[in-house]
Design brief:
This protein is of the alpha/beta class. The protein folds into four domains: 4-58, 2-Layer Sandwich (Phosphorylase Kinase, domain 1); 67-135 and 339-437 and 446-502, Rossmann fold (3-Layer(aba) Sandwich), CATH 3.40.50; 154-325 and 510-531, Dimethylsulfoxide Reductase, domain 2 (3-Layer(aba) Sandwich); 551-668, Barwin-like endoglucanases (Beta Barrel), CATH 2.40.40. It is built from 25 helices and 27 strands. The strands form seven sheets. The chain has a six-stranded mixed sheet with strand order 5-4-17-16-15-6. The model has no long low-confidence stretch (mean pLDDT 98). Bound molecules: ligand MGD (2 copies), iron/sulfur cluster (SF4) and molybdenum atom. The site of one ligand MGD has 32 residues, from helix 6. Pfam families: Molybdop_Fe4S4, Molybdopterin, Molydop_binding.
Length: 671
């Protein structure tokens, strides 16, 4: 390609918004990224993380050649050597220990359909140790599977039908900018906007009410609202009687706790709770949950109690309502099985994602002998960094497919250079918010010797004797994944032509009240939970690290550490590229600043039994008490990941993390 040209493309980042792009290319180089005004949801607006993909492609820090660590130093090797050695190691491990001695460690850093290809690779390999659940949203998705049978959100425009909107623990201005645009719009039209969050964030600024809450206690607030609803007779009795099961179990829970206890535990005044009962009964009321509040030991139960509130107030299945958490109907539109060939695996073992380090260290039959990492940076992002590091170091061979020398890549034995979004063709979507799939063409050649992940898995497959399973072009793979969507007119050609195409999902989920649970009803008491060996009832439950559940720990470490998502980086992806991000910022609530005598820019250490991190103080304008907040994603080079402090214990329904369920101490230090 020569000269200047513009093309439509798509953001690949793991984000609520899945934006449409317009990309300028000059002489084979990405020059600029902007929003596609014709995208029906994202409407020409994109965030700085999207724009930074230009720097991520052109940066001189990109990894451009295959690397092998020899005597502790990385040396450039040829692709032939890398692929031959890695495939020989895979074959050897499989032969000696079985294929489950290989772990595929990944997250969801790229929203392209073809990021499912490694699953095809490992299935055809005969199986592997797979990660299940998610440190991101595992407990909430599992909770909604228990309640509704699936996690589905209303289409973005459905917010126009709402009378009230409750933003419950979602940091919309930072993480979900197009929802923020809708909020600004509906607010002008008179919608009542409420924010419930321990931190007074950007969204709280435009809300009619900001309700600060003690972290991890949202389930109690939901119980309080339902208690007031029942006292005042405001619940939707018709919906409860016709379309739900288990309400009587919920009533037992509601009756087991007093309003005084709820006020004390949540630190939300009774009057506010009563007002919320009216808000929920005088709908339609849309609830947009974030992922923060389910990263606690009681996170699944918390989301289930909020679902229960939304359901018992009659806000399920109606325009303008909804218990919006994730939107997995989007991802489920695709034919994953055709792409990943699950029937090909002969053996399998699963580790819950949050627990991968502990499992690596304790696995014996077989032990983990090799780890392949793609689309993830576990040494920074997975909780309990010290344990993750110990686990990864204990394994004979670690191979990382990467674009940059991340903390994880740095400790690998082989690093394979991966192409970036504009260097390969794919289609992109997010199962978090809207239901449009976007087209992303190949716009430039991959730099240096970087290759697409699909190419890397294909070359390894050929050397391991199952090359025929990979003997397809990218286009053929994409068509495979489109599956029956093609019969509904959603073909690859149409996606290419239109750039963004709506998937056939329910725009108002559950409008027919046909739930996907076993009873086909909304389940206050979950049969799926029971099938999995849990008590399927809702319950009273606390975070693992709180004054209510562990008094001595709370005396030793009195402050709640929230480790929320950074504004200018998707997780760890931009810290090395933006100078202003290369230090640790420790935000503290005013009460802590007062007690500890902290001023802005003071140096502090934040610590608990798992680790310690140092940084510079900023004081939160408004928040719940006893809050310390450090953005996640920081690199070891610039002060280190806050996950040095977080716990790898899983949440109550087993598939999520407890990243925010973390008590710490804080002290001023001399610099
Ligand atoms: N800028 C930016 N945007 C992103 C990302 C990013 O890294 N950077 N990552 C993307 C990804 S992968 C995800 S999962 C989403 C996450 O999107 P969000 O869910 O919006 O983000 P989080 O940072 O997880 O936390 C959200 C909010 O939860 C609040 N919170 C924490 N604990 C509690 C609690 O106990 N109760 C209540 N009510 N609130 C609580 C925090 O104060 C914060 O305001 O963002 C996506 N968008
Ligand atoms: N303390 C704390 N920890 C957290 C969170 C938190 O809120 N607090 N949030 C959690 C959440 S919500 C999430 S989703 C996870 C995210 O965890 P990760 O997905 O591991 O985080 P990223 O920093 O996005 O790292 C992804 C890496 O994948 C690489 N990458 C991007 N695209 C590709 C590709 O196409 N191929 C390959 N091979 N590599 C690619 C990037 O260069 C980057 O280094 O972190 C979790 N960790
Ligand atoms: S990171 Fe999210 S908001 Fe930003 S451009 Fe990408 S999809 Fe849009
Ligand atoms: Mo996430």
């Amino acid at each position: 390609m020569s000269g200047l040209a513009t093309f439509k493309s798509a953001c690949p980042l793991n984000c609520w918004d899945s934006c449409g792009f317009v990309v300028e290319v000059e002489d084979g180089k990405i020059i600029k990224i902007d929003g596609d005004k014709e995208h029906p949801i994202t409407k020409g607006k994109i965030c700085g993380r999207g724009r930074m993909l230009e720097a991520r492609t052109n940066s001189d820090q990109r990894i451009l050649y295959p690397l092998k660590k020899i005597d502790g130093e990385f040396q450039r090797i040829t692709w032939e050597q890398a692929l031959t050695e890695i495939s020989a190691k895979l074959a050897d491990v499989k032969q000696k220990y079985g294929s489950t001695a290989v772990l595929h460690s990944h997250d969801y850093a790229n929203g392209g359909l073809l990021t499912k290809i490694p699953d095809r690779f490992f299935n055809c390999f005969g199986g592997s140790t797979e990660l299940i659940g998610s440190i991101c949203w595992g407990s909430g998705i599992e909770a909604q599977n228990w309640d509704f049978g699936n996690a589905a959100s209303h289409a973005p425009e459905d917010i126009y039908n709402s009378k009230n909107v409750v933003i419950w623990g979602r940091n919309v201005t930072r993480t979900n900018m197009h929802l923020f645009a809708y909020l600004q719009e509906v607010k002008k039209k008179g919608v009542n906007l409420i924010v419930i969050d321990p931190i007074y964030n950007g969204t709280a600024k435009i809300a009619h009410s900001y309700i600060s809450i003690t972290p991890g206690m949202d389930g109690f607030l939901a119980i309080g609202i339902m208690k007031e609803m029942l006292r005042l007779g405001l619940q939707n009795q018709d919906f409860i009687e016709t379309y739900t099961i288990g309400f009587e179990d919920l009533v037992d829970v509601i009756n087991s706790v007093s309003m005084e206890q709820i006020e004390e535990i949540t630190n939300v005044p009774r009057e506010t709770i009563t007002n919320l009962a009216y808000v929920y009964s005088d709908g339609p009321t849309a609830t947009y949950m974030g992922l923060g509040m389910q990263r606690y030991a009681n996170g699944g139960n918390t989301i289930r109690l909020i679902d229960a509130l939304v359901a018992s107030s009659g806000n399920v299945g109606i325009p303008g309502g909804g218990a919006n958490f994730g939107n997995t109907q989007v991802g489920r539109s695709f034919d994953s099985a055709a792409l990943t060939l699950p029937e090909r695996k002969q053996e399998t073992r699963t580790f819950v994602m949050a627990e991968q380090a502990e499992k690596i260290l304790t696995a014996s039959e077989p032990p983990i002998k090799m780890i392949m990492v793609s689309c993830g940076n576990p040494l920074t992002q997975v909780p309990n960094t010290a344990l993750v590091e110990e686990a990864f170091r204990s394994v004979d061979t670690v191979v990382v497919l990467e674009q940059f020398m991340t903390d994880t890549a740095r400790m690998a034995d082989y690093v394979l250079p991966s192409a970036t979004v504009f260097e390969e063709e794919d289609i992109y979507y997010s199962s978090m918010y809207h239901h449009f799939v976007n087209y992303g063409p190949k716009l430039v050649e991959a730099r240096g010797e970087a290759k697409s992940d699909v190419w890397i898995w294909t070359e390894l497959a050929k050397r391991l004797g199952f090359g025929e399973d990979f003997d397809y072009t990218r286009e053929e793979f994409i068509k495979m994944g489109l599956g029956s969507l093609q019969d509904e007119g959603i073909t690859f050609d149409i996606i290419k032509e239109k750039n963004h195409v709506p998937l056939p999902v329910q725009l108002v989920p559950w409008h027919d009240y046909q739930f996907e649970t076993r009873s086909k009803k909304f389940e206050f008491t979950s049969s799926l939970g029971e099938t999995k060996g849990y008590d399927g009832r809702l319950k009273i439950s606390y975070p693992r690290e709180s004054i209510h559940s562990n008094q001595s720990l709370a005396q030793k470490y009195p402050y709640s550490l929230l480790t929320i998502h950074p504004l200018r980086s998707n997780h760890s992806q931009n810290y090395h590229l933006i100078e202003g991000l290369q230090s640790v910022k420790v935000e503290v609530s005013k009460d802590i600043a007062e007690i500890k005598g902290l001023e802005p820019n003071d140096s502090v250490k934040v610590f608990n039994d798992r680790g310690e991190i140092t940084g510079k103080v900023q004081i939160l304008k408004d928040s719940a008490q006893n809050i310390v907040c450090i953005d996640e994603g920081q690199w070891h080079l610039f002060g280190g990941s806050v996950n040095q402090l977080t716990s790898h214990e899983v949440s109550d329904n087993g598939l999520g993390s407890t990243l925010y369920d973390c008590l710490v101490g804080i002290e001023k230090i001399d610099e």
